[in-house]
Amino acid sequence: MSFKLKTVLTMTFAVLSLLVTLTIGYILSQKSSIAVETEIGHSLISTASQTSDKLDRFMWSRSGELGLLGRMIALKDRFQPAEMQQLIDQLQDSFPTFSWVGFMNPKGKVLASTDGILRGENLSERPVYQEGIKGEFIGDVHDAVLLAKLLPNPTGEPLQFLDISFPVKYKNGEIAGVLAAHLSWAWAKEMEDSVLEPLKHEEKDIEMFIVSQKENTVLLGPKEWIGRPLKLSGIEGARLNKSTWSIERWPDGIEYVTGFATSQGHLDYPGLGWTVVIRQLKSTAFSSVTDMLWFNVWAGLLVTVLFALIGWLISRQISAPIARLTQVANQLGAGEQVLIPENRGFREIEVLSRSLGEMLTSLTNKDSELVVMQNLAHYDQLTGLPNRTALELYLEESLELESENHTLTFLYLDLDGFKSVNDTLGHQIGDILLQKVAQRLTSLSQDKGITVRLGGDEFLIVLRSVGINPREEARTYAEDVIQNLNKPFIIEYERIHIGCSIGGAEYPTNSGNPSEIIRMADEALYESKRAGKNRMTFYPELKNTANG
Length: 548
Fold this sequence. Notes:
By secondary structure, the chain is an alpha+beta fold. Among the domains are: 339-378; 388-538, 2-Layer Sandwich (Alpha-Beta Plaits). Helices cover 50% and strands 20% of the residues. It has 15 helices and 18 strands. The relative contact order is 0.08. One of its GO terms (biological process) is signal transduction. The chain crosses the membrane at residues 292-314.
């Protein structure tokens, strides 16, 4: 089964873009989800912490105000109930949060109080007196008992208070009585509204709870939760770590993103250990994450369509020149004379066009290529020197120039010590040595002559001389060769020494047959070997005359 290039490229672009977009979208969504969840959690922690701090600061302020009143009362050695009543009324007028303030004598009888409520009553059995006579006391939220019917209550909801009491002493340290106050818990509701109201304009489904340290009772929150215990793992964690957040499954079975902050007190106010809990529906809190996920999905689909269109356009640009080249190839196959069109735009297609043109030119000029191949066959592959085939061609040309003053001197060379190099250092080093020998012989070669590798470590140099004493010229040349090859070779950091034995014979002095001349030069070479190597020996003319 085959497919059009245009179709393949279009589908490839579409699939790759979809995979890349979905992969990147998924990774970004995951990272964004974690970042958003963390940001939301920290935001809830911040709100809870701010609320807890406000509660502590409020309680610290009220405790300080009542303490100031106590110190004013203690300034005098003896004081009258009327004076105390005046101070209490001033405090209640300045801070309406104090629902009731009263001063009791050491036995618990109320001597002065807000609006005269409970004046003359004995409160010695009440915790506000019993704890206050011992020292500074701040009690947790509780329902009103004695004051429930005595204080105004326009809303009709159950009244709740926090108690503050401490002993008042004369200058001499004698206990003059107990100063006590009931703080209306209604101020906490006002604080809740002040915290949540700004958030409701930006966020939805946010609720606040204040949970007591004792039995985790809900002191403030939605009506259905007031007075009920609230057990969440995050509450205990907040008491250990001061503040934290988590995704909690609440008793109603719904998951909420929940922030916790536990009261730590403020300055000399130790705090009551309240835990402020701020919760938000998980689906609402993470709605932006869901929106981001869907945005990535739709963006991925849009990018896929866009890249598919780009792929289709690019495939048209690519397939059109290929189609033209295919048509030209078919015409060439049919024997037509056509030119390869030039295609601009894509480097690979330009290269293909040029390659086809070059191939056509190459096929047209195949005869010249064959000539080049034949020339390559005339050289030794290892050393690059002419081989026996090249020698034959050279001799064919040179012998045609035969005359009385024309002499060809054949110098047969064999390397001394080459076998030892091969045996000790290996054939690879031996091959490199032969290449370096060939380089040195080439550097000494004359314009009128040829240097040939016969095989192994044997070489043949043919010198063409026109002169009075060609033998002396050849001897001088041979000695230069021996001297040059005696110089050390450096191969793979090894210092290698070899020698060179040479045998010479002359054409036509020794023989008119090139094959016979080569044989004579070979015999002269072995004479050099027998005489001690590394020298030059000529085949004697006398011996050649005798053989003739």
